[in-house]
Write a structure and sequence with these properties.
Blueprint (H helix, E strand, L loop, with lengths): L1 H35 L6 H19 L5 E9 L2 E6 L5 H8 L5 H10 L3 E4 L2 E5 L9 E12 L2 E11 L6 E14 L2 E6 L5
Antiparallel strand pairs: 1-2, 2-4, 3-4, 5-6, 6-7, 7-8
């Protein structure tokens, strides 16, 4: 009986010491996360951000956002249509800034006149160029370069004239960084 009681007391002491050290570790982790102002993202979160950034670039380089073709504004010889998804340019920029650095957002907005605001309402030139049909499936991988930088490597199939046979690969690298406590792409290549 004494032996059993001694084992039980030892077990309780070990468990209580383990929980003390766990709470100390948790508070250290919380302090570290607070110090950097943003938790280090998982690979799955980074790939989700990559997919979102790709979608944003698609709406600038391949096909504009859905528009209401009945509401138009003409400016400088172009017809602009009211965008359905966002009411203002500020709303579109806020969405973009969830995964892209301010610099990339401003470059996209300023490099083209695809999206314009007239009288406080967002409009777009309704256009589509299509994607690069010489590129096939892509494989995305993530590597951590430092505590505040990840590299997203995208390996894409190059297709032959039949648009089915893989003749080689192209590789693109995007940079996902912690900028002042916010994770965002600071370097991004849209290749479609």
């Amino acid at each position: 009986m004494k032996k059993m009681l001694s084992i039980l007391i030892a077990f309780i002491l070990i468990c209580s010491l383990g929980s003390c050290s766990a709470s100390k570790s948790d508070s250290t982790t919380a302090t570290s996360a607070t110090a950097t102002s943003a938790a280090v993202p998982t690979n799955a979160q980074i790939i989700a951000a990559y997919n979102k950034a790709t979608k944003i670039y698609f709406y600038f380089d391949v096909n504009s956002l859905d528009v209401n073709s009945n509401v138009t504004v003409k400016d400088a010889g172009k017809t602009y249509y009211k965008v359905k998804a966002y009411s203002t340019l500020a709303q579109l920029k806020a969405y973009m800034e969830t995964v892209l650095s301010d610099n990339l957002v401003n470059n996209l907005i300023n490099k083209t006149d695809v999206y314009r605001e007239f009288n406080g309402v967002l409009y777009s030139v309704d256009g589509a160029r299509g994607e690069d049909i010489t590129l096939g499936k892509e494989t995305v991988s993530v590597t951590q370069s430092s505590n505040s930088i990840f590299t997203v490597t995208v390996k894409v199939e190059k297709l032959g004239d039949d648009h089915q046979t893989v003749t080689g690969y192209r590789t693109f690298k995007d940079i996902y960084s912690n900028i002042n406590g916010k994770w965002a792409f600071t370097g991004f290549v849209y290749f479609r």
